[in-house]
From TrEMBL:
SUPFAM superfamilies: FAD/NAD(P)-binding domain (SSF51905). This is FAD-dependent oxidoreductase. Keywords: Oxidoreductase. Residues 41-401 form the FAD dependent oxidoreductase domain. GO terms for molecular function: oxidoreductase activity. The keyword Oxidoreductase applies. One of its GO terms (cellular component) is cytoplasm.
Length: 444
């Protein structure tokens, strides 16, 4: 598997990920590769949610001449292979941590921005009539041990008190009665406006919206290098040269080694892995009292996230291998299956039918950035595995930056991603972090 920490190029010969989403999502449009040189106002590199939203916004709201290219097809990266959790937030810091770090007023601005991100996803689904099967609203953050219940109760109160957000605390028995019989959930907080959808259908819908708005979209067009040319850029792709006044890097965790060193050294590609089981029987679902298709994630350091899909399969995800080379090792999928069976009793015979993984971009300070590190060049990266809703808004914020507009006064829009110290040893650091995480989740 392509490994952006090691490979110096993402070429167009990568295979499609054999995901559940690929299997159940009809209607793929093949966007042809760019064969001839061209000039444009803005070139967006990467056609995931970030790049497509940037292209859409530049074409629709600013009437810019915008070209979006992807080394593969729209949604080939994270955007077409994620869990489909529309969450309120990004990065790894909750609002309480943001309040401690930046103060209450800024935490409130973050909260507002996160709400805007979810609203944007909803608006675009409606505007594009995107058939991405949004499920009933509701996200449960689950305490994976009794000691976390108090934290979750405080969190619900904190969200209600300071943000007027209708978070609700649930006890263990309330979870068993109204959500699902769960073996490892000692309490929960319910977030009412988050939900699950088909992420690949969303990416394809965004692509169609961007094209309809006037963006030119090319697939199978890998950018090899970006050279300064006067006030603009000369961008070399496999078959053609693009002259652009502005360049947007929307390559996030899929940015190849050395492609833009500052981004490489400040956004660590980390694998997230997913399994999708065979469908559960009605009897199994009844035994489990599985009542809602809500999305769930636990409070572990190395979190598990899961949901019941519309066709009664369970999607179950968590951290995977460290290197691309090890990603396909079945041990990681087997570990996820074991973890799933510890959560839900009576599924001893259940197997998985799909398994895949993808790279999420982790930043050093657990927060993403949308920033212009040099004139005419822009990037958004480092969502730390929580980027479905936020990347949709980040694309819009990037477009506003390109147009010279002011962004909301948030720290993530005011500085570049911090470089990791000892960045050459990040994978060793990751290894140690995983060991510590496993120990903490088990014993502390
Ligand atoms: C298994 C998994 C589960 C996840 N689950 C969730 C979830 O449930 N909820 C959530 O909020 N987030 C989730 N995430 C994270 C979320 O998917 C990402 O944050 C989001 O999709 C990032 O979008 P993006 O557009 O920034 O990047 P991507 O979608 O990764 O797009 C980057 C694109 O850049 C292209 N590219 C790279 N280099 C070049 C080049 N040189 N030339 C041309 N193109 C190039 C790639 O082909 C790729 O398509 C998950 C991620 C994974 C991997």
């Amino acid at each position: 598997m392509y490994d952006p920490y090691i490979d110096s190029e993402l070429n167009s010969k990568q295979t499609d990920v054999a995901s559940y989403w690929q299997a159940v999502t009809p209607g793929q449009i093949h966007y042809p590769s760019l064969q001839q040189d061209l000039s444009c106002d803005t070139l967006v590199i990467g056609a995931g949610y970030t790049g497509l939203n940037c292209g859409l916004e530049l074409a629709a709201a600013a009437q810019r001449d915008v070209v979006v290219v992807d080394a593969l097809q729209p949604g080939w990266g994270c955007s077409g292979r994620n869990g489909g959790f529309v969450l309120r937030g990004t990065g790894r810091l909750g609002l309480a941590q943001l309040k401690s770090k930046f103060g209450l007023d800024t935490a409130r601005l973050f909260h507002q921005e996160y709400g805007e991100a979810v609203a944007r996803v909803n608006q675009l689904i409606t505007a594009g009539n995107i058939d991405c099967q949004p499920q009933a609203a509701g996200y449960y953050k689950l305490a994976h041990k009794a000691a976390m219940a108090k934290d979750l109760a405080e969190q619900a109160e904190f969200l209600q008190q300071h943000f007027g957000y209708q978070a609700k605390f649930l006890t263990k028995s309330q979870i068993q009665q109204s959500v699902v019989k769960h073996q490892q959930a000692d309490a929960a907080v319910h977030f009412p406006d988050c939900y699950g959808l088909n992420p690949l259908a969303l990416a394809r819908g965004y692509a169609q919206l961007a094209v309809k708005a006037g963006a030119k979209l090319f697939g199978q067009t890998a950018v090899r290098s970006i050279l300064r040319q006067g006030a603009g850029f000369k961008v070399i792709t496999a078959q053609a040269v693009i002259n652009a006044s502005n360049v947007v890097l929307a390559t996030n965790a899929y940015t190849a080694k050395g492609f833009y060193p500052q981004l490489n050294n400040s956004c660590l590609p980390v694998l997230s892995s997913v399994i999708v089981t065979e469908p559960l029987t009605d009897n199994q679902l009844q035994q489990l009292n599985w009542q809602q298709n809500s999305i769930m994630m636990d409070t572990r350091t190395l979190k598990y996230y899961y949901r019941l899909l519309p066709d009664k399969r369970i999607l179950f995800g968590g951290r995977g291998a460290i290197t691309g080379k090890a990603a396909a090792d079945p041990i990681y999928a087997s570990r996820l299956l074991v973890a799933l069976k510890r959560c839900f009793a009576g599924l001893e015979q259940l197997n998985y039918q799909y398994q895949w993984s993808g790279w999420v971009g982790v930043s050093f300070d657990d927060l993403p950035r949308i920033y212009s590190p040099e004139p005419g060049l822009f990037y958004a990266a480092g969502y730390c595995g929580s980027g479905l809703s936020f990347s949709s808004l980040a694309g819009k914020r990037l477009a506003q930056l390109v147009c010279g507009q002011r962004l909301p006064a948030l720290p993530i829009y005011q500085s570049q991603l911090p470089t990791f110290p000892f960045s050459a040893f990040r994978r060793q650091g990751q290894q140690l972090y995983y060991q510590w995480g496993r120990f903490k989740d088990h014993f502390l």
